[in-house]
Amino acid sequence: MVLVDKGAPCSVVVSGAQPTWLERHAAEELVHYLRLITGATLPTVSGIPDGMNALVIGRAGTNPVVAEAVHEGVLSLSEDSPGWDGFAIRTARRGNRDVCFIGGSSDRGTLYAVYWLLEEVLGVGFFRDGEYIPRSDSIVLPESLHIVERPVFEHREDGLLAYSAKFWGWDEWKRELDWKAKRRANITWPFCGTGEITQAVLAEWGFNVSPPVPPQEPTLPERLLEYAHRLGIRVPCHLPGGSMPGVFWEAFPNAKKLVMQWSEYAPYTQLHPSDPLYKRFMVDFVRHYRERYGSDHLYIAEFASESRILEGAENVQEARIQFVKAICEALSEADPEGTWLPSSWSFDLSADDPGNPWQANWTVEQVREYLDAATYPLIVWDTWSEEAAKYERTEFFYGHPWAFSVLHCFGGETYLLGNVKELVRRAHALGEKPQEVGCVGFNVLPENSDYNSFYFELAALLQWNPRTVQLDEFVSRYCRLRYGARYVEATVPVWQQLVETVYGEDSGTVKIIMDPLYWFRPDLRLLAGWPEDDERVIPMWKRRGEFIPKLRRAAELLLAAGNLVGENNMARRDLVDIARQWIAERFNQALIGARDAFLAGNAGELARLEPICLRLLEDQARLLASWPAYRLSRQVAQVRDQYPDPVKAVKLLHVWCNPVEGQESVPLRDYYRMDLDELVADYYKPRVAAYFALLRNKCAAGETTVTDEEFDAVYTPVERAFIAAPLCPLPDDEDPTDVVQDFLEDTPA
In whole angstroms, what is the distance from residue 234 CA to residue 225 CA? Predict the structure, then answer.
């Protein structure tokens, strides 16, 4: 079936006379990408003109041409076949013309069908960090094209916790939502905070707070909610914890309360869930939220997640059960049609669980009691399933419906990581018989975006249908869609090197630190894993040295792939990522060697490794400065209107996990650790230099021990100096390809 011949349109796009917004959007997207491929603009019409082939978009209820095809049995588009969110693409001969039907059981399915055709048939690559558009003056669809797809999992969330998106505007968010639709996600993480609605509820209750003035224009959250809904993406309502201002406690001095604390920040007071005011507040909150934003009947609510209870609950489990009962009663009254989405992140089942490091651990029996106390429909979001796998320890949450939820990265973790074979293995095990284990959803919930596209593209395919995904085939598909069909043979070996290394079994996690070690305050342990993991981690550090030649080889192969890095921006980005990982692995091995030399009293080896480590950090800063995504100044520009001193705010965020001066948390120091040019040059490098100076002095004195206080004495001035210094941008006029080639030429294989 010919769509375009030598730049001339041979087909029209046919939508119904009154298409829905999403069907019209699907048609516009199809026309847009076909124009990008060929330069030709296909006309959009409501009926098939004589002598023209046709791409017919829509459902039987909105497009008479589709209705006729369904009636004749040419294709099926119902809730049963292909199923809700499913779609069908089929070519057929109609009279003297060829017709391709592109439709879904729902409008959302129709949009998925368009993106599937563009991606899987025409070779368009959709990625968070860019798109690949194949170029041709002609397009011919395969003969007898017949595709029927439906998801294995009903609920598919592609969320983005607020760390990366905190300062986004409309353009960034729209790009993100469009990408989610292309990945066939039907839920996203909430955009709206709880403060505005809480303020409105308290004002209605008569407290001396100023309700927000209704804006003349829609707010950003309102615009985002509307656009998400138009794309068929649901947005849960995030319920507040019940924290109240002082005037509330003055009015209700006898109200039961909980005094909570997160990390080392100031304690806060919130309503106890057993107090009748708690339920009343939640009911009014949901009512106000629905009046302002509408409702997708999904509610996120957690009890004491990541906070410890200082006062008000001698029996923590009793308070947890009271919370479940209060939330269920409130939601039943406020929205009888809804679903509660409790997260397993709160269920800290072991002493090293990062979900709640300051509170008494849960037992599996307590998890069961907590879930069984619910009287409102729920789906457990098993956050961090790929690593913590709490669904295994709780017998699939004891019969309650749940969703496999990939977290993968925390805070500022932007290095290349993720055990892809293990992710595929777990997804395959669920995808075989998801109903038998009660798994109704597959979520991807990273804490940052635009990094590790390889891992997240794999997760997105598994989210749709794990049974169709094999790792070797995925690597070839990834290279075809990211770089183009003519570069597959040259680039598959690049990613095979990465699958064997950073995306292999020795990939790091939050529990097993394999990050670039310059991200942290170096000490004599060098974060060699948590104590109970030492037996696993120490051999891993030794094996990580084997990554170095393979990462170099990956960079060389990418550079050798014809003119790929010259013509493809995503290939250049991948080259930067591979090279920065290569530098980081070499630095890690050198720093570990320096630490070992100090412990052995080997001053000569310590002196040999010091300039190597510092030079590697100089190289890393130079490389990062050559790519916009890795410039600290870019982050400063994003927050310029948010803080009086945006430079200091960004620096405080990276050092102390809070952009407000004076609010510091030692446990969260360096939580937003990242590869950013000035962060490496002006913070990490001086800290490593201070480390070596301290070890040299100790070694000269014949000492092989250093106390925490001695480390703190040299690191604190580095931190303070970095925060106080003005922004000192590095030169950004270098081509990253030239930078990487310089490094390869200067470094013996």
Answer: 8
CA 322/CA 328 separation, integer angstroms: 10
The answer to whether the CB of 613 falls within 8 A of the CB of 688 is yes
- Partner residues linked to 440 by β-bridges: none
pLDDT interval class at 560 (50, 70, 90): very high
Q: Which residue type, as a one-letter code, is found at position 518?
A: Y
CA distance 77 to 57: 12
Q: Are 684 and 587 in contact (CB under 8 A)?
A: no
pTM of the model: 0.95
DSSP 516-554: -GGGS---SSTT---GGGHHHHHHHHHHHTTHHHHHHHH
Q: Which two tokens stand for residue 306?
A: 């990541």
- CA 578 to CA 570: how far, in whole Å? 12
**Contact status, residue 13 vs residue 63, Cβ threshold 8 Å:** no
Confidence of residue 532 (pLDDT cuts 50, 70, 90): low
User: For 218-312, where are the E strands, in sequence order?
Assistant: 237-238, 257-262, 268-271, 298-300, 307-311
Average pLDDT over residues 142-146: 92
Encoding tokens for residue 438? 């009660």
pLDDT at 529: 57
The pair of structure tokens assigned to 644 is 């009086």
Cis peptide preceding 628, ω within 30 of 0: no
Q: For the chain, how far is it from start to end, CA to CA, in angstroms? A: 51
Cβ contact 342:327 at 8 Å: no
Q: What is the dihedral of CA 566, 570, 573, 579, to 10 degrees?
A: -80
One-letter amino acid for residue 713 of the chain:
A
Half-sphere exposure of 712 (CA within 13 A, CB side): 5
Task: Report the pLDDT averaged over residues 367-372.
Answer: 98
